[in-house]
Amino acid sequence: MDFESLHTHTMETLFGPIQGQIIKQENNIRIVHLRDENGNSRTLGVARFLNTDHNSVLAAHTKILAGGLIGKTLIDSNIDYNKEILGSFQVKLPDWLMHDFKTLDDSCLAIYSRISLNGSSTSEEQLLYAELIEVIPPELKEIFEEKTKPLDIIEPDLFSLMETANLVVIQKQNG
């Protein structure tokens, strides 16, 4: 994975240094704000970690659980991975997130992706490491709409992940 293709890199290009602030972390779920140096929330990340007990990712995963940003930590740990953006959808913002994004808009774009770890030289198999929802502040909607396509179908598993952050999908209008 190229550092310049990371979501964090995009945020740092726009706003300067980005740090993660963990809001909730339990078992295989983490909710984190990506905050700029002024403390403004620039993304809400919701991650579901899968396959975290493999030797290739144990040390990096420990750092991620301690607050490390996923992409940066994997790169710093020399782990070859692929982040596949599966699509985007609109979500209704809960009041607390409207406050943290400093917006009056009550909806915004969420990007859904998966991170797979590439196999070792003896194995070409990819290991699904995490599913991510990155909720983008309304002011950045146009930037990210150009980079993603809307999801036609939202899998039931994704709804349970969104519920952990009190997020609700805004259904597409037919016609």
Count every helix, treating DSSP H or I runs of 4 or more residues as helices: 6
- The residue-averaged pLDDT reads 86
In the CATH hierarchy, what is the superfamily?
Chorismate lyase-like
CATH architecture: 3-Layer(aba) Sandwich
User: Helicity, in percent?
Assistant: 25-40%
Order of helices and strands: HEEEHHEHEEHHE
Rg, please? 16 Å
Tally of strands: 7
Strand order of the biggest β-sheet: 1-2-3-6-5-4-7
- Poorly predicted residue ranges: none
Structural class: alpha+beta
Domain module tally: 1
Give the termini distance in whole angstroms. Answer: 39 Å
Please state the overall shape, judged from the principal axes of the Cα atoms.
globular
The CATH top-level class label: Alpha Beta
Share of residues in strands: 25-35%
Oligomer: single chain
At the fold tier of CATH, the topology name is Chorismate lyase
Task: Name the features.
single chain; 175 residues; alpha+beta; Chorismate lyase; seven-stranded antiparallel β-sheet; 6 helices; 7 strands; 33% strand
Describe it.
The chain has 6 helices and 7 strands. By secondary structure, the chain is an alpha+beta fold. It has one domain (3-169): Chorismate lyase-like (Chorismate lyase, 3-Layer(aba) Sandwich). A 7-stranded antiparallel sheet has the order 1-2-3-6-5-4-7, sandwiched between helices. The radius of gyration is 16 Å and the shape is globular. The model has no long low-confidence stretch (mean pLDDT 86).
